Amino acid sequence: MDAERLANLFKALADPIRLRLLSRVASHPAGEACVCDIADVGVSQPTVSHHLKKLREAGLLTSQRRRSWVYYRVDPGVFVALASVLAMPARA
To answer: How far apart are CA 84 and CA 87, in angstroms?
Structure first.
């Protein structure tokens, strides 16, 4: 994964609301979460939608509309790439 793509991922993760939303999706028992189940993060619904859009654009989440609700799922491939970067040994 190139440096620009990684920077975009880390930038998306740098916001506390986005981290909360991502955590709620990742920890949902079904492996995916309806926006109605994760929206209570202390901000308005339009703000939740904005942050979910940013997480999708960064490639951290995927989404699927089902009738009037949108369901979100974590993209595991992105986290494998992030883990490999974070696990790299430091160079002196």
So the answer is: 5
